[in-house]
């Protein structure tokens, strides 16, 4: 399979089946907010003063457990910020990362991770854990638990590892934050779906009791027979992206250069990375959508109706169009140059179309299109600019240049 096809398949699966894979997890040991933490055995830890940690010694302090694993990009990106909080708060709090992965695997990861090395962002991490995972089961990481004076005070998101929330808990003994519940399958507005309900559409803001649910899952209520189509706690932009993906298999990513904003404040409709935490943002701006009907239709037809519903109720006009935009074009050039030594961190890809997709995926460049039609295999080292990339593309008779082209765009327009 070509790498571009593989990547597109991954993004389609994210858009359409984000919450479908839910492995069975034993919740019989689960500790809820208000529960006292039982006495715990001494555990293996990395990056701490010693290689063992006894959580029982922190009974009179605030402990934050932040569950993670090496496949969680968000977890790793947040580590420098979490370390700054630990340094700022000092002995007021003990922050411990927790992973089920082995000590050997985590040691190797820390040795090889350049991002954390550059930022000196290594945090104490309990390794090879199974017990804490049983007390605080979850389906997704990061998964964050606040424990104060031996009592569970919050099960929430890593966004809340901030001085203001730590100080609030120490001062009042309480913490008012969003609850993270990976096991809540409730559907917003499902309760009033009695036998006499023929159909309805419901659009709301953020619903804290609902787990985020992307794509456009369609379920049937076993009691009424009604079909329920929904999107839970999504960015508005993300909801439209998923819906358009149902209409047509995506051939590219909706990166900023492919979106035309005609709104007063686009930050209401999409989260800006680095602006303070995605889940904090969602609590103010996320939306929920639900359509209930006696009959169901193919996914594409349901997606089309959902787009119309959201446009109407949100006062928007969001649609696909074409516009001339600044782009990067991959072209053929005459002759081939000598192959340059590949830098570390590279990869092998099939076809110039894959190179275009990877440039889009990086988020660092304008939309990229391939006009070369090159289908061969390319071995590319790491690059940090178009110039560095072109040094390598020249060997294959290719070049990536800035230009302007008419491309497919998403227009995001407010009606009022």
Automatic annotation (TrEMBL):
Record-linked InterPro entries: Redoxin, Thioredoxin-like_sf, Thioredoxin_domain, Thioredoxin_ResA/DsbE_sf
PROSITE patterns in the cross-refs: THIOREDOXIN_2
Segments forming domain Thioredoxin: 31-171
Coiled coil: none
Family matches, as CDD domains: TlpA_like_family
SUPFAM superfamilies listed in its UniProt record: Thioredoxin-like
A single MF term (Gene Ontology): oxidoreductase activity
PANTHER family in alphabetical order: PROTEIN DIPZ, THIOL:DISULFIDE INTERCHANGE PROTEIN DSBE
Protein name: Thiol-disulfide oxidoreductase
Organism encoding this protein: Sphingobacterium thalpophilum
């Amino acid at each position: 399979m070509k790498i571009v096809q593989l990547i597109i398949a991954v993004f389609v699966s994210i858009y359409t089946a984000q919450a479908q894979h839910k492995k069975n997890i034993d919740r019989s040991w689960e500790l809820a907010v208000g529960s006292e933490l039982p006495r715990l055995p001494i555990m293996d830890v990395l990056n701490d003063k010693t290689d063992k940690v006894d959580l029982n010694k922190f009974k009179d302090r605030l402990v934050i457990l932040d569950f993670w694993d090496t496949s969680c990009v968000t977890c790793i990106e947040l580590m420098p910020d979490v370390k700054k909080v630990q340094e700022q708060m000092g002995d007021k709090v003990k922050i411990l990362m927790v992973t089920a992965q082995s000590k050997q695997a985590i040691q190797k990861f820390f040795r090889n991770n350049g991002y954390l090395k550059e930022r000196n962002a290594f945090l104490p991490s309990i390794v090879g854990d199974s017990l804490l995972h049983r007390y605080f089961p979850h389906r997704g990481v990061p998964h964050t638990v606040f424990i104060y004076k031996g009592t569970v005070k919050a099960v929430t998101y890593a966004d809340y590892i901030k001085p203001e929330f730590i100080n609030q808990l120490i001062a009042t003994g309480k913490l008012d934050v969003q609850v993270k519940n990976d096991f809540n399958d409730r559907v917003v507005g499902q309760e009033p779906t009695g036998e006499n309900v023929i159909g309805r559409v419901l659009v709301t803001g953020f619903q804290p009791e609902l787990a985020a649910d992307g794509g456009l899952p369609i379920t049937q209520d076993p009691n009424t027979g009604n079909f329920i189509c929904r999107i839970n706690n999504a960015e508005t932009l993300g909801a439209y992206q998923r819906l358009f993906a149902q209409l047509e298999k995506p051939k590219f990513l909706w990166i900023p250069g492919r979106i035309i904003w005609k709104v007063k404040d686009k930050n209401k409709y999409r989260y800006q990375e680095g602006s303070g935490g995605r889940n904090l943002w969602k609590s103010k701006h996320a939306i929920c959508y639900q359509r209930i009907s006696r009959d169901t239709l193919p996914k594409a037809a349901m997606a089309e109706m959902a787009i119309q519903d959201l446009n109407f109720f949100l006062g928007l006009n969001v649609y696909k169009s074409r516009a001339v935009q600044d782009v990067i074009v991959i072209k053929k050039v005459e002759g081939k140059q000598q192959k340059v030594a590949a830098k570390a961190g590279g990869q092998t890809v099939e076809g110039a179309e894959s190179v275009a997709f990877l440039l889009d995926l990086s988020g660092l460049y304008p939309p990229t299109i391939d006009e070369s039609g090159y289908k061969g295999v390319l071995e590319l080292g790491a690059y940090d600019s178009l110039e560095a990339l072109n040094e390598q593309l020249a060997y294959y008779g290719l070049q990536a240049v800035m230009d302007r082209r008419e491309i497919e765009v998403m227009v995001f327009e407010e009606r009022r």
